[in-house]
Amino acid sequence: MPCDFSYNHYREIIETAKRRGYRVIQMREYAHSRGDNRILLLRHDIDIHPRCAERLARFERDLDVRSTYFVRVHTDLFNPFSYEVYPLLRKILEMGHEIGLHFENVDFSRTTGEDASSILRREIDALQTILGVKIAGMAAHRDLISAVSNDGADPSEYGLAYEARALTRDCMFVSDSLRQWTGTEGRCACQVLQDTHLDVHRICLLTHPEFWYQRPSEVQHL
User: What residue ranges define each of the domains in the chain, with the CATH number in brackets?
Assistant: First the structure.
């Protein structure tokens, strides 16, 4: 099968991980109990299209895996409170997936002049209020304004269990950034998992749902 961004190939990545003995889990589970087994962490950043995220979440449910979706609250691209997006986020939760905050308090602070720490607290409160749940973690969003959005924030100060970058420092970080595999010298995640000479016990796989598709006609042109 070609190394594309189809759901069929995503299935191949997950099945390869399971075949190689990796336990496929979400971020919250890793924060509470790491264990000694091989682990593949599934992380998704909802940057642009929540509908793509809900579609991928349904596919993962059918694969019998659960993952973590980080959602933005500061963006002109979608509104987490809207009639369209709110039900999608609730469906992701109802399928057993985790939702965390994709925070961007530093960028927002530079735009508004407000205190970055205060903004982060309000981002967390906003997402928890929207969803009616207590979230466990957060992950920084990066855009063209800043390279880092307060990655060093101590999650315990904000009532959270983890910050994603700090949590996965002991993992091999594999990302589909702009449909280019990073952290792997350009190799697809499936090639990394198939490499019997690479003895990596912990891998964090970061994907962006808008890059993946069931049919080529669904490809998002970014």
Answer: 7-212 (3.20.20.370)
